[in-house]
Amino acid sequence: MFKVGYFGLEPGICRFGEEVLCHEEKATCAFYDGLLMAHRIALIGGDGIGPEVTAEAVKVVRATGVAIDTTDFDLGGMRYLRDGEILSDDVLNQLRGFDAILLGAVGTPDVPPGIIERGLLLKMRFDLDLYVNQRPFVGTAPGHVTPHDFIVIRENTEGPYVGEGGVLRRGTPYEIATQGSVNTRHGVERCIRYAFELAAKRERKHVTLVHKTNVLTFAGDLWQRAFNEVAAQFPQVGTAYNHVDAACIYFVEDPHRYDVIVTDNLFGDILTDLGGAVSGGIGLASSANLNPARTGPSMFEPSHGSAPDIVGTGKANPTAAILSAALMLDFLNESAAGDRIRAACGTAPTGSTVDIGNAIAAIVAGK
Ligand code: IPM
Ligand code: MN
């Protein structure tokens, strides 16, 4: 029996049958020349339809021929109800050892809102420094005839999501609640820089800043100055600015104007739901939570929730999860496989969750 060699974050190359050292253990290369690398993927199926759609995503990734080695993590609302575990430091440290995390969906109606969101999803975003949330939108908006193709880059570790603020005299008529928005020059600039680097590689080479600089004058001013300064370093990339309310109109009426959008965490959360709605629905909306500095694994998840009402019915569309896995492959330097998945998803197969997964897997495998 050959053992498959793993080389951590860097692709390893060896010759078929060659003895190699993998994680300080001797192993024999099980692939043909120059094609050795199994990406280590942490799988968090989560709650509701999460495990169903994740299974299809893994099936499709395997159909590309890219070698992955998956490890399941039982996390989410159901796990929390069972034994109280949300995401301990120990589990978080285990996750740090993987090349990527593929997540289905978390949340169950029996757990009050905020617990799993903050304790699991946002904890991963903050603690793994997943500072870019990348959400691509390709589709034809209602009332349009040609498809649009744009990407929202949402800042993913700051803004109103940090949990700054508090409550005083709760439950009394004198209650006060504040919830601040934290914007650091470092955090804002690295996100904007990512957007420009991405745009520079795309055909249209254009970045739009979306904010509310006319009202949020402190944060907006920081964003606008950081944007202008980064833009000056990318003379080949065109720029525009839209207020977030106006952007909502353009998403519906003129989505073709956009190439790359960069925006604040909360604006990006809201805008990307609208992006999904005008691009074929939330069943197609994929997302990547990226640590572009690669100091740890990035996390890939469909934008949709756990949809407990349709669990086990076969009605969940796994395409968003499959497209999120394609984003994962892009980030693991396997974008040729990612492109094949996107092309297969473009044929828009129908049927049950498993039917759709099988159809996409078959196209990807060339069967
Ligand atoms: C998303 C979700 C999350 C967010 C929730 C579940 C915390 O809506 O990924 O867009 O607000 O970021
Ligand atoms: Mn959201």
**Cα-to-Cα separation, first versus last residue:** 28 Å
The total of beta strands comes to 14
Give me the Rg, rounded: 21 Å
Mean pLDDT: 92
Main beta-sheet annotation: 10 strands, mixed
Biggest sheet, spatial arrangement of strands: 4-3-5-14-13-6-7-12-10-11
Tell me, briefly, the overall form: globular
Helix content: 25-40%
Order of helices and strands: EEEHEHHEHEEEEHEHEHEHEEHHH
Low-confidence stretches: 1-12
Throw out a few tags for this protein.
14 strands; 10-stranded mixed sheet; binds 3-isopropylmalic acid; single chain; about 35% helix; two-stranded antiparallel sheet; disordered N terminus; alpha/beta; about 375 residues; binds manganese (II) ion; 11 helices
Explain the overall architecture.
The two termini are 28 Å apart. The protein is α/β, with parallel strands linked by helices and 367 residues long. Helix 1 packs parallel to helix 11 (353-365), helix 7 runs parallel beside helix 8 (265-277) and helix 10 (335-345) crosses helix 11. The chain is built from 11 helices and 14 strands. The longest helix has 17 residues, at 185-201. It has a 10-stranded mixed β-sheet with strand order 4-3-5-14-13-6-7-12-10-11, sandwiched between helices. The protein has a two-stranded antiparallel sheet with strand order 1-2. A two-stranded antiparallel sheet has the order 8-9. The structure holds 3-isopropylmalic acid and manganese (II) ion (MN). Manganese (II) ion is lined by residues 269, 273.
